[in-house]
Amino acid sequence: MSYRSTSDSRAFAEADVLAVEPVVDSIRSLDPLVLSLLVLGLVGLVLGGWWIVRWFRRPPGVRLQRVLREYDEVAVLMHPNPDPDAMSCAMGIGAIAASVDTDATLQFAGEIRHQENRAFRTVLDIDLESVDSNSELAADPVVLVDHNTPRGFTGAQTVEPVAVVDHHPGNGTGTAFTDVRTAYGAASTIVVEYLDEIGASRDGTDGATDLELSAELATGLLYGIQSDTNHLTNGCSKAEFDACAYLFPAIDEDLLDRIANPQVSDDVLRVKATAITEKRIEGPFAVCDVGEITNIDAIPQAADELMHLEGVTAVVVYGEYDGTIHLSGRSRDDRVHMGEALRHAVDDIPMANAGGHARMGGGQVSVDHMNGIGPSDGISRPEFEDRLFAALAGER
Ligand SMILES: [Mn+2]
Questions:
Q1: Is the pLDDT of residue 6 over 60?
Q2: Ligand 1 centre from 188 Cα, in Å?
Q3: pLDDT in tens, 234-290
Q4: Which of the four pLDDT bands, split at 50, 70 and 90, describes residue 374?
Q5: Distance between CA 197 and CA 374 in Å, rounded?
Q6: Ligand 1 centroid vs 228 CA: distance in angstroms?
Q7: How far away, in angstroms, is 95 Cα from ligand 1 center?
Q8: 247 or 3, which is more confident?
């Protein structure tokens, strides 16, 4: 490293002046009109650049609010059979839209069956509409929450969402706004951050906008986070805890209790009881046929219940509904990839399908085909159960 002497820097200064002089001369010789146009162009460039920088430095919640403000009406679309995380996200986006006078219709494909999801919708009095095809979407601009590719209704593949807010992996994007954070445990967490960024008021105490965080919205978002993270025990990031702390002043404990502890219908309890009393256990695995059922949501719930059994690391519960055997499996055993195990268990039964993730899987088998009424010879229930155990043990 060398230091430049004073004479050197003077020499540089003189050289600079010498270089600048011809430029100044040529500017002087320009036509005043051309000169003013040049100056205007330069100012435009600087302003444009500044605007672009400002736009991208705005927090995402503020950017989404700006995008929503462009429309009179939007459809906020949840994934099929929406869960509390999807529903509370939709509520939150609806509130952000309302803060800029944009009408939001909250829509979903499929059904809301699970008692937890039904209680969520009823207790928080959320206005949700179901759709069977893209022609039923309430508006052209669609905001996707808790998923990033439209699915589950006719024409879903033709829908190009304007905005996407999600925490699942995938390549889906919105034309104007995309915020997918796969490290987050719940999409509701992202929406909570938006509310904070926009400056929503909690309990009328703080906040700088017209957006007030109602008790219903705060409670919904808290429960959305809780239900997607198994009550903050699974798949959480620090963001989930921060979001819960942010929501705390606005939540309503009574509403929360009613959502978290809904009454369970008689048939669901009966299926759970059957699973508990009739299960067959082999080593660390439990399998149970719960017979004919009237509510297919009872099956995964019964599987969850059996997972509480000490010493059991993987379970499969199945029951018959409307001519189809529905299977639901759970695993906390690193040796058992539940989706693969179920797939292997039914792979040579015609019209059967099964699959899923490592810890959770499901499937359907047509009773006719299992009985051999279809093209194959069929298999008996005890044989089917042996297959399930073999698949769990990795022997199929
Ligand atoms: Mn979710």
A1: no
A2: 7
A3: 899 999 999 999 999 999 999 999 999 988 888 899 999 999 999 999 999 999 999
A4: low
A5: 59
A6: 6
A7: 19
A8: 247
Domain residue spans of the chain: 6-57, 61-260, 266-392
Residues 6+ apart with CB under 8 A from 162: 67, 71, 74, 141, 142, 143, 174, 175, 176, 177
CATH for the 266-392 domain, from 3.90.226.10, 3.10.310.40, 3.90.76.10, 3.30.40.10? 3.10.310.40
Instruction: Return the pLDDT at 29.
Output: 77
Distance from residue 187's CA to the centre of ligand 1 (Å): 5
- The owner of tokens 């695993």 is 331
Residues 200-217 have pLDDT tens digits of 998 665 555 679 999 999
3-state SS string for 28-70: HHCCHHHHHHHHHHHHHHHHHHHHHHHHHHCCHHHHHHHHHHC
Q: How far apart are CA 189 and CA 226, in angstroms?
A: 10
How far is ligand 1, taken at its centre, from the CA of residue 328, in Å?
Answer: 20
Q: Which pTM does this prediction carry?
A: 0.74
Name 288's bridge partners.
317
Task: For residue 227, give the H/E element and its range.
Answer: helix 215-228
For 61-260, CATH number out of 3.40.190.10, 3.40.640.10, 3.90.1640.10, 3.60.15.10 equals 3.90.1640.10
* CB-based neighbours (< 5 A) of ligand 1, an ion: 85, 146, 187, 228
